[in-house]
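[SOLVED] Need 3D model of a two-part complex

Original post:
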Amino acid sequence: MEKITTHSGIGVPLRQSNVDTDQIIPAVYLKRITRTGFEDALFAGWRKDSSFILNQEPFSQGSVLVAGPDFGTGSSREHAVWALKDYGFKAVLSSRFADIFRGNSGKQGLVAAQVAQSDIELIWKEIENHPGTEVTVDLAARTVTCGSIIAPFEIDDYTRWRLMEGLDDIGLTLQHEEEVTAFENERPAFKPTTLPARFS
Amino acid sequence: MAAHQAAQTLAEKVWNAHVVRKGEGVGAARQPDLIYIDLHLLHEVTSPQAFEGLRLAGRKLRRVDLTIATEDHNTPTLDIDKPIADLTSRTQIETLRKNCAEFGVRLHSLGDKEQGIVHVVGPQLGLTQPGMTVVCGDSHTSTHGAFGALAFGIGTSEVEHVMATQSLSLKPFKTMAINVEGTLKPGVSAKDIILAVIAKIGTGGGQGYVLEYRGSAIRSLSMDARMTICNMSIEAGARAGMIAPDATTYEYINGRPHAPQGADWDAAVAEWDTLATDDGATFDAEVFLDADDLEPFVTWGTNPGQGISLSGVVPAPEDFDDENARAACERALTYMDLKAGTPMKEIRVDTVFLGSCTNSRMEDLRAAAAIVQGQVKDPNIRMMVVPGSARVRLEAEAEGLDKIFLEFGAEWRFAGCSMCLGMNPDQLAEGERCASTSNRNFEGRQGKGGRTHLVSPQVAAATAIRGTLSSPSDLVDSSSDAKVA
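Solution:
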C-alpha cells in the first residue's frame, strides 16, 4: 500500500445523506473478478444524469469527496472503495461513515476522514461558491483545510498509522503467527469443522 | 471490553473468548485486538480478488476446514441445468469453482442440494453455533448472530486476511441492548420488529455497536424469525446483531449434519449455557420497543430507516426536523413516485418478491402459503417465490407449498439471492414497484429505476391478493364486507 501523509485535490460536494454502496457501485458491476478498473462503475446510476456533480467541471477532476452523513451504508462490497480510488479519489469526508465502508477504506489507502457536520457545511459552501478549490487532508496534523477553513477530523490511530506507513495488514498479522497457532491448539474439540463434509 | 471477572454481555463474552492477541494502549490510541475466526463463509462475488491476492503473495489458505463456499448472488433461479447465459456471471461462478478446487475449499455449487444463500446454508448445515465468530464478505452475515454467534460482514481485503491468517484485527465494538417486550398480534412478525427498530434508531444508529436483541418478544421467536431480525442489524448501521442461545437454539441445532454429537454435544451445551448476558452487565446504549402495539411495518422511501406502520400515510418532508432527513425524504418521494399524505394501503404494486436471506426460510414460506392458499392473485401482479436454499425448496415441496404458490399464480423458483439485488436476471423494470421481503430499498437495488417497499412475508402475501400494500387483517375485513354485501 502507498504511504499517505497529506493529500490536496479538488473538493467535490455531494450534498446527500445515506449514500449507500449500491449507489457508489451498482451490483451489476460486481461481477468482475479483477481488483482494478472500476472507474466507470463509480456512481454509475447517477452519472447518467448530466446534472450530477461528477459530470460538471472542474468537479469531474476532483479527488476529495465531501459527503453528507452516513456515507457507505449497506452492502460490504469493497468494490465501492476500489471504484472511488480508481476514479481518482484519495479521501472522503463525512460526519458519519458506515463501519464496514470505513474499515474497507483503511485497508485500501482511501482516507475516510470524519469531520463535524457543521464543518462539512462550511466546506460545501466554499467549494460550491469557488468550484475547483482544493481541499487538503493532512493525516499527520489530522486536519482538513479548504480556503480559510481549517477543521479537525477523526480517524482511529491504528488506521492512521497504517496509512502513513503504507503497511499491509496480512504481513502485520503474520508476525504473530505463533500466537494464532497457540490459540488454535486450545480451541474446544466440539467446535465444528466444514471438512470432512457431513450431510443429512 | 470488561475484565473477565466483571459482569459481561453476550457480545463481550464471545469477543473475549476469541482474543488471540490483545491490542495495546487505551482510548483512541488503543490498537485493535487480533480475533480468531471460527467459520469463514465464501461466495462468488467478494472472493475472487481475495484468492488472487493469496496467489500473488504465495500464501496458503490457513484453515480450509473452517471455510465453506456456495454460489448464490449470480445464480439463475430458472433453467439451472443450462449454462449461465450472462457471461460475466458465468465467469465469476467458474472462477469460484476453480479457486475452491485449487485451494481445497468445500463448495456447494448450483444444482447441489446444499446450495443456496450463504446465510441460509450455514445454519441449516449446523455449522453456525453459539459462541462462534463467523465472517463472510457479505454484510448480512449478521444473520448468524441469531445463534449467539458474533457474526459480521467484511470487505474483500479482510476476506483475504482471514484466508491467510484465520483471524482479523478488530477494534472492540460497543454494545447496544434492543429490548422488545410483549406479544406480537396475529399477522405481525419478526420482520415488523426489525423494520420498526431501524425506523426508530435510523440507518446510522447502530454504527460502532453490536446489537443484542432481548426481551420476551424475542425469546418467543423461532430460529427462522430470530435470523430475520439479526439479518437486518446492518440496516441499522450495526455490523452484528446477537440473540442469546436458549432451548429454541439448541433444538434447532441438534441433529443437524455438523452439530456436535455425543459427549461433544454435552460439552458444547455446557459452554453455550454460560453465554447469556450476566445480570448486572451494562450496555453502552439501550433501546426499548413494545411488541404489543406493533403493526405490520413497511418502508416508503429509499433507505430501510424510512419506514412506517402500514396503516399510516406517506410522510412529507416537513414532518422531519433534521435538514438532511428532510432532503432525503424529498428525494425519496421523487424516486418512489409517491405523494405525501397517500395512505400506504392505497399504493399499488406490480411485483411481489418472497425471498432473500431475510425471509426465505421454511417459516417464511409457510406463513405466506397459509395466506394465499385458496385465494386468487391480483391479475396484474407478478409474484416470485425464491426459497433460500435448495434444501428449503425440497422441504417446501415435501409439504406441498410449491403447489399452493403455483395454484395461486406465483412463480416457484430455484434458490439464490435473486431479486434482492438483481445480479441475476431477476430484476425490476424501470419504474416497476415491488413489495419485497428482502432487506434493502435503495435506489435501483432490485433493478435500475425499480421501486422497493420492504415488507414481511405476511404482508407480501396479502399484497399479492389485493394488489395494493395490505396486511393479512385486510383480507379478513374484505371477506366479511363481501358477506354483508
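Edit: Chain B touches chain A through 93 residues (CB under 8 Å).
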